[in-house]
């Protein structure tokens, strides 16, 4: 079968393909030559299994994630639902910043951040730890097509008509520990400060909605997050 490669990253390749008549995205994790072969195979299998389990748990909890159609541990390929019109949250944010003034940008991004914060809160309420929360691992999938000739106000309104979908669960695991949830939040904060340094308010917007959705352990988790953040800052100062 001929596969059309659409992206290659450090961990694998993404192809457009087909599974039992359904268009799908195929993620292939390739061999890491710098690892011992047995260790590489073990790590790859663990990450594939983690992705399958986490996607299933998210969907069962009402959190949007790709459906896994098939996994092949021998060829290290995952066949999953393909969102052809989606873009990453990173791209969405960058395009929004480029299109609007500062006040309008905050208005549009508040809605996005609320959706992201609610999703992460629901994940943690269900003890799902993502492990690699970045705006590159979140998709914005539009519900309607945007007419290029529409007015700016209509275009801005259309930006709220989308689903937020979490992807790339290779580093995920299932754990109720507040420490792990705090680390998940810290990873996200650091990623946002690195990628979207001019929009420092993004994480606070996300955290506000997270608090409303993360369940009864909210205060414990946020206290752990503060501890993790303090340790991270100490490491940064010491070098």
How many domains? 2
CA(first)-CA(last) distance:
50 Å
| Radius of gyration using CA atoms only | 19 Å
Q: Would you list the SSEs in sequence order as H and E?
A: EEEHEEEHHEEHEEHHH
Per CATH, what is the topology of the largest domain?
Answer: Transferase(Phosphotransferase), domain 1
What is the CATH C level class of the largest domain, in words? Mainly Alpha
Q: Please tell me the CATH architecture of the largest domain by its name.
A: Orthogonal Bundle
The percent of residues in helical segments reads 40-55%
> Low-confidence spans: pLDDT under 50, at least 5 residues?
none
Count of DSSP H/I helices: 7
Structural class of the secondary elements?
A: alpha+beta
Blueprint of the fold:
Layout: E1 4-8, E2 12-19, E3 22-29, H1 37-60, E4 68-72, E5 77-81, E6 87-88, H2 89-99, H3 102-125, E7 128-129, E8 138-142, H4 152-158, E9 162-166, E10 173-174, H5 178-195, H6 201-213, H7 218-238
Antiparallel strand pairs: 1-2, 2-3, 3-5, 4-5, 6-8, 7-10, 8-9
Helix pairs in contact: 2-3, 3-6, 5-7
Structure report:
One of its GO terms (cellular component) is EKC/KEOPS complex. Pfam families: PK_Tyr_Ser-Thr (PF07714). One of its GO terms (biological process) is tRNA processing. Belongs to the protein kinase superfamily. BUD32 family. By secondary structure, this protein is α+β, with helices and mostly antiparallel strands. It folds into 2 domains: 4-80, Phosphorylase Kinase, domain 1, CATH 3.30.200; 87-234, Transferase(Phosphotransferase) domain 1 (Transferase(Phosphotransferase), domain 1, Orthogonal Bundle). It has helices spanning 37-60, 89-99, 102-125, 152-158, 178-195, 201-213, 218-238; strands spanning 4-8, 12-19, 22-29, 68-72, 77-81, 87-88, 128-129, 138-142, 162-166, 173-174. The strands form 3 sheets. Strands 1-2-3-5-4 form a 5-stranded antiparallel beta sheet, with helices on one face. A 3-stranded antiparallel beta sheet has the order 6-8-9. Helix 2 runs antiparallel to helix 3 (102-125), helix 3 packs parallel to helix 6 (201-213) and helix 5 packs across helix 7. The model has no long low-confidence stretch (mean pLDDT 91).
